Amino acid sequence: MTTLVENLVAGHRSPQQFPLAAAPAPADLAAAYATQEAVAHALHADIAGWKVGISGEGVPMAGPLYAQLTRTSGSTWRMPTAGSPWVVEVEIAFRMRHDLAPRPGQPYTRDDIASLVEEAIVGVELVRGRYVVDGPTPLLYLVADNAANAGYIVGAARKGLGTLDVRKLAVRYTLDGDTAFAGAAVHPQGDPFAPIVACANAGNLPLGGIRAGQVVTTGTLIKPFPVTAPTVIAAELEGIGSVTVRVAG
Question: How far apart are CA 64 and CA 67, in angstroms?
Fold first, then answer.
C-alpha cells in the first residue's frame, strides 16, 4: 500500500484522486501536520499563506497555500480533467505585518490580530481534495491534504482595517456577469478573525507557521458552489474591492 504522503504528492501532480482506504489516516493532528510538511518538501513548494478554520468539533486547523497555486485577480484556471470539480468559495483574507509566533502564557486576542493586519483582501478559493469522498472528508485526512485547497486567487486589498467591521460585510458575486448572490456575508464562526486567533494560539502549525507577508484566508462568506463549466467568476466585498477569475475548459 502506498503511503498517504505518496498519494498526496501524486494528487498534486495530476488530477488523480484516491480513495481514503488507499492509505491510513494520520494518527493525530500532529501527524496530519507532519504529512503537510512532508508533501510540501517533496513538491519543493513555497508557502504563500495559510487557509485557517475551526472544525465542527471545535479543533483549530490550517492548510498551507502553495505559491504555485496562488495567483492574482484576472488569472485563468483550467478545470480538472478528471475526478470531481472545484468548489468555489469567496473569502476575506489578511496579510499580516509580523509573524504569528507562538506565545505561551500570553495568548493572542482578537485585538492583537486586528492590530497586526497590514491588508484586508478579497479572495476566491478553489477547493478540491486529493481524495474520492462521499460526504465530508474526515478531519485528519482533510488537514493532511492542505484542507483541500486547490488554488487561491488574490484580489483587491485595502491597507489596514480603519473602520471596517469584518463581522459585517456585504458580498456579491456574478457568473458570466449575472448576479448569483448579493447580500450579507455569513462566516462559519461569525468573525473572520476567530480562526486566526485559534490557530495562532494552538501554536502547532508546520512549515514555519504564519509569517509576515503571507496571505491568511479565513473561510467562506457564501454558500460554496461547484464549477462544472467554463465561466467568469467576479466577487466583491464592500469596503475592500473585487476579484475576478476565469475558469476555462
Answer: 9
Which residues, listed in sequence order, are joined to residue 217 by a DSSP beta bridge?
51, 93
Give the CA radius of gyration of the chain.
17
What are the grid coordinates assigned to 67, written together?
505559491
Contact 95, 196 (CB under 8 A): no
Q: What is the rounded distance in angstroms from the CA atom of residue 237 to the CA atom of residue 246?
A: 18
Q: What is the DSSP letter of 60?
A: E
Going from N- to C-terminal start, the domains of the chain cover: 4-248
pTM score above 0.90: yes
Rounded to an integer, what distance in angstroms lies between the CA atom of residue 53 and that of residue 218? Answer: 6
Given the candidates 3.30.70.260, 3.90.105.20, 3.40.1360.10, 3.90.850.10, the CATH classification of the domain at 4-248 is: 3.90.850.10
Q: Using one digit for the tens of pLDDT, what is the confidence trace for 91-124? A: 999 999 999 999 999 999 999 999 999 999 999 9
